[in-house]
Structures are given as C-alpha cells and as structure tokens.
Amino acid sequence: MKTQDAVVFITGASRGLGLAFARECVRRGARKVYAGVRTPNGSNTPGIEQVPIDVTNPASIMAAASKCGDTTMLINNAGIARITGSMLDSATIDVTREVFETNYYGTIRVSQAFASILATNGGGAMINVLSDAVWHARPFLAGYSASKSAEWSFTNALRIELRSQKTLVLGLHVSFIDTDLTKGFDMKKIEPRQVAEAALDGVEAGKEEVLVDDFTRQVKRSLGEEQSIYLNPPDIG
Ligand SMILES: NC(=O)c1ccc[n+]([C@@H]2O[C@H](COP(=O)([O-])OP(=O)(O)OC[C@H]3O[C@@H](n4cnc5c(N)ncnc54)[C@H](OP(=O)(O)O)[C@@H]3O)[C@@H](O)[C@H]2O)c1
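^ thats the input. predicted complex w/ NAP below
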C-alpha cells in the first residue's frame, strides 16, 4: 500500500523513531497522521495530530482506537529498553516483566484494538518495530531481547491470521538507532529517518519483512550457519 493518502497511527511518536515515522509519513503525503503519545504537549506540527495512548493501559488504547477509526496503517513502535548487569541479577525478573509489558503485551493490545479497524478500511498495513536483538541476545539487553523475540513470534503468527482480511503485517528489524534509547551506547548507530524510510519503502513494495542495515542482514543470514552470530557475537554490535 502507498503511504500517500494513508491514515497512519503511530505509537510512541513523541520522539525517536516514532517521531521520524510521523514526519516521513507527512512528507510522503499521508492524508492524516495520528501521533500516539503518552503525554500530549500541545505541539502543532502541520499534518500531525497528537492522540493520547499508553500501550500498557487498555482504556487509553480503546479510547485512541475509537477516536481513530479511519486508520489504514498502524505502526507499533512504542518500546522501552532496560540495561541488565547480568542475567543472574535478582532484578532480572522484574526488569524483564516491565519491558514485556510495553514491548510484547503493549503490541498485542494495540494490534487487537486496531485489527478490525484496518479490516473495515480495506485491509491496510501494520508495521511492528522489532530489532536484530530478535536473533542476537546481548547480555546487557537480555530482557529487551527476549521481549523483541516474543514480539517477533507474535508478529509472525498475526501476519498469517491477518492475510485473510488483506492486512499486510511487516516486521521491521534494525540494529542500533540514534535515539534516546541508545543514549550513552558507544556503537555505530543509524539515523531514525533512514529507518522510517526503509520501513515505508517496504510497505509500499508489499514486503513482509525489512532488514534495515548490513549488521542485521548479517545476523539473520548467520542463522543458517553452524557458528551463528548469536553463538559467537562480535565484541561490539
Ligand atoms: N534505538 C534503537 O537502537 C532501536 C533498535 C531497534 C529497535 N528499536 C525499537 O524502536 C522503537 C522506538 O524506540 P526509540 O529508539 O525511538 O526509543 P525512544 O527514543 O526511547 O522512544 C520511545 C518511544 O516509546 C514511547 N513509549 C514508551 N513506553 C510507552 C508506553 N507505555 N506507551 C506508549 N508509548 C510509550 C515513548 O514515549 P514517552 O516520550 O512518553 O516516553 C517514546 O515516544 C522501540 O520499539 C524500540 O524497541 C530501537
């Protein structure tokens, strides 16, 4: 589907990749862009309408869905990461639960609320923002990686289910992006605008999976090798 004339709803659009998605959708001529934000700040960017949504709060999701019944493209972008010192740390379970609540259950809740809206409006598309971490668990982001692997699995099942209502479900995989989430991480990062462009190009080409950068492509390719990257990761990346 084309972004031009689409009505796009993006979760986590206050900053980072979500905001880049909102701007790129406007640039491509979307008819309407709903920027889902936890705390509307009265920002008045032409073409972008802020809508309150917290993906951990079912009532706020239902309110957003009933307000935005003309949505034709949903971007499940809201996400959090928490650094864990060690998988053996006593805080690991609480931290992992917190991350799952947003990244995994949040994505499920929002998808459930918007799936019938997409169907009513002709099928449309859903982009789920995943990661290379789906296939490569870095110890300091282990809880985050687990949540993204779970979100990937959900995305794969949902894709098959929503084909019958003609909704394209695209899994977006990318390594580190230059946003607040990676502030202080000393590694190569890609610009959020480039990620949004690659994802929307993918939707427009009818793709079900987009691997944005070389490292992510390398990680996925290595799954078929005996020494996959998740077994022997590079020092950085
Ligand atoms: N940065 C990376 O290296 C990287 C790599 C791969 C994938 N990703 C994924 O990309 C997506 C966007 O991340 P980002 O890098 O742009 O991070 P970010 O700059 O930290 O932005 C996160 C966004 O998610 C929102 N959010 C957090 N919890 C929420 C909740 N409960 N309900 C609604 N919104 C919530 C935040 O809203 P507030 O402003 O209210 O906090 C913010 O808009 C995430 O799914 C992340 O896992 C990021």
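Residues 11-12, 14-18, 38-39, 53-56, 77-80, 102, 106, 129, 131, 174, 176-177, 179-182 surround NAP (CB under 6 Å).
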